[in-house]
Design brief:
Oligomer: heterodimer
CATH superfamily of chain A: Alkaline Phosphatase, subunit A
Number of helices of chain B: 5
Structural class of chain B: mainly alpha
Radius of gyration of chain B: 16 Å
CATH topology of chain A: Alkaline Phosphatase, subunit A
Number of strands of chain B: 0
Largest sheet of chain B: none
Helix content of chain A: 25-40%
CATH architecture of chain A: 3-Layer(aba) Sandwich
Largest interface: A-B, 19 and 19 residues
CATH topology of chain B: Four Helix Bundle (Hemerythrin (Met), subunit A)
Radius of gyration of chain A: 24 Å
Structural class of chain A: alpha/beta
Strand content of chain A: 15-25%
Chain lengths: 478, 133
């Protein structure tokens, strides 16, 4: 930012600032925001038309951090039960680098009981009895695959289409493509739950804006009444004082902006102050669950263990999409002692019972609630993880990472319910209807009215896309 | 005729399965890594340049790819463990030929679809023959 160059400039600026002080609190926030829009300035968050008619307006991205075993949740494999305790046959493992620190144990059947639900007849295990009642809203992608075998690398690929940090996350691309649906809230919100690394889903690189402008990155909300760190006014500053400070700052910035009309960074900075000011009111309201009925809170499992924290996040997600937030990334975690995420290299039974109980009731409530409010048609709910888990055991009572075959699912937003694709007979490798993470991203963008091949950003001489050179829309489910 | 097609399908499937099964054990140390990286860059640039309707730059990228794929075809043709590799490389070159024709008449929509076909050939080959994951 440029500095005042003479004492006269400074005095002029200060005089304007004093005028701003007198106006403190007199003008509504929107009017003030409108004032700072200089000629030629393009608001990067202004709403943008999609490439074609959109089915969905928003995405709730349910990131099951740590990677659940979908063999214990959605992918029923009778053959695995028959082969329980036997070594992994070569016919299934050829071409795969299966050995890890824990070694390749014997094939391990799930001890779960299974039933088919709904008109679509989707299989769901007894770990998810509530989600099971909503299968007719869900398109199960049962032939998913990815790359990498560590959480960080595969999380990066799932969210940014790259195995190394530096590329924008899907939420950032969506925000870049469509702009904001509510100028008083961030367009891309992240709701981490749990503690430790799992609570961040392996860090903010997975909700980064990468090489896109920083304005498109995800904003991480905290639990509690004040969702954004440092957003609240300090206790010793009253509202009129804060407004006066911001007005003075604005006037000074406007004076500078008049001298340098091409300085969009200054315009953006001025607008960011006002956005923060408006968010002080809008963000706490958006996440204030006291405005929900007791029945709604109970439906999400709020006020009981272990669903309280995750249910709170998921209900917040619903409130945010209701208010026009484009992309809400909810990261699963738990406060349960000794368990951070779905990552069950040991004691998978204990782990998955806790994690399933944590998410089952809230996710089912979300689907029911969105449907009842007429929002499911315009909201894509995506259940996804960095990979799945192996049909063979590890360390006696766990399962290892499995990037070769697992299940993700999508509900709402114009997606057809029912199963699509499959893994092989033991659930190790995707076999039919194979869906890579690029395809999942292309499909989400498609439902939002964005052609993943046309949504581009020039970076280092190349026209970059969310899905790199890959990605096919899964036409069979739309 | 139908029997022949069916039989060909079976043969191809068995060959693909055999290729896939063998992928873990293939030694690629004699393949030029730099060449593969330059092709990786070229396909990304090609996609970008076709999208940006820069025909001249896209033709340059297509040339790099065609030359690289010719080397890959010859490499795979000599390798008994990769019976489908040469075919994938040939498919990609064929798609590149069509792409070049589209670029020459400035039909960027067709060229964009042909880039996707090239990518599919690349992906199919990497699925079958890349080193173990």
């Amino acid at each position: 930012m440029s500095r005042f160059t003479t004492r006269r400039d400074l005095l002029v600026g200060a005089g304007l600032g004093a005028g701003g002080l007198l106006l403190a609190g007199a003008l509504p926030a929107r009017a003030l925001a409108a004032q700072v829009e200089g000629e030629g300035y393009v608001d990067p968050l202004a709403p943008k038309a999609p490439h074609f008619a959109a089915k969905a307006k928003s995405v709730i991205w349910l990131h099951m951090a740590g990677a659940p075993s979908t063999l214990d949740l959605f992918d029923y494999k009778p053959q695995l039960i028959k082969l329980n305790g036997q070594p992994l046959p070569d016919s299934f493992s050829k071409g795969l680098k299966t050995a890890t620190d824990g070694g390749v144990g014997a094939l391990t059947a799930t001890p779960r009981t299974w039933k088919q639900y709904g008109e679509t007849g989707a299989w769901v295990s007894d770990l998810l009895p509530n989600i099971a009642n909503h299968v007719d809203k869900i398109s199960f992608l049962k032939g998913c695959k990815t790359e990498g075998s560590t959480h960080v690398i595969s999380s990066l690929k799932l969210h940014t289409s790259s195995l190394v940090p530096g590329r924008p996350s899907l939420g950032a691309w969506v925000t870049y493509g469509l702009g904001s649906g509510n100028p008083d809230l961030p367009a891309f919100v992240v709701l981490p739950t749990g503690k430790g690394a799992a609570g961040g889903g392996n860090g903010q690189v997975i909700w980064s804006s990468g090489f896109l402008p920083a304005t498109y990155q995800g904003t991480s909300f905290r639990q509690g009444d004040s969702p954004i760190l440092f957003l609240s006014r300090p206790d010793r500053v009253v509202e009129t004082e804060q407004r006066a400070t911001l007005d003075l700052l604005k006037q000074l910035n406007q004076t500078q902006a008049a001298r340098y009309p091409g300085d969009t960074e200054l315009e953006a900075r001025t607008r960011s102050y006002d956005l923060a000011y408006r968010m002080q009111v809008a963000a706490p309201e958006a996440v204030d669950l006291k405005q929900e009925t007791a029945a709604t809170r109970a439906m999400y499992g709020i006020g009981e263990n272990p669903t309280d924290e995750y249910g709170t996040a998921v209900l917040r997600a619903r409130r945010l999409v209701e208010r026009g937030v484009r992309f809400v990334h909810v990261i699963s975690g738990t406060q349960e002692e000794g368990i951070q995420s779905w990552d069950a290299h040991q004691e998978i039974e204990k782990n998955h019972k806790v994690m399933s109980k944590t998410v089952d009731k809230p996710v089912a409530a979300l689907l029911r609630d969105l449907k009842a409010r007429g929002l499911l048609d315009t909201t894509l709910v995506v259940w996804t993880s960095e990979f799945g888990r192996t049909p063979y055991g590890q360390t006696g009572d766990g399962r290892d990472h499995n990037p070769w075959g697992y299940t993700n699912w999508i509900a709402g937003g114009g997606v057809k319910p029912g199963p699509y694709g499959s893994t092989d007979e033991i659930g190790l490798r995707a076999q039919e209807g194979v869906v890579d993470t690029y395809d999942l991203q292309a499909t989400v963008l498609n439902q939002l009215g964005l052609d993943h091949r046309k949504l581009t950003f020039a970076h280092q001489g190349r026209s970059e896309r969310a899905t790199t050179v890959f990605g096919e829309v899964i036409k069979q489910i739309i | 005729m139908r029997k022949k097609v069916w039989a060909a399908g079976v043969v191809w499937t068995l060959a693909a399965a055999a290729a896939f099964a063998a992928a873990a054990d293939i030694d690629y140390s004699d393949f030029d890594d730099t060449l593969m990286r330059s092709m990786d860059d070229a396909i990304k640039d090609l996609d970008s340049n076709v999208g940006g309707r820069d025909g001249a730059a896209a033709l340059e990228n297509a040339k790099v790819l065609t030359e690289g794929l010719a080397v890959a075809e010859s490499y795979f043709a000599k390798k008994a463990e990769t019976p489908l590799g040469a075919g994938y490389a040939r498919d990609a070159q064929q798609n590149l030929k069509s792409l070049v024709q589209s670029l020459e008449v400035k039909d960027f929509d067709a060229a964009s679809n042909q880039v996707r076909e090239v990518v599919r050939s690349c992906k199919a080959c990497h699925q079958a023959y890349k080193p173990p994951e």
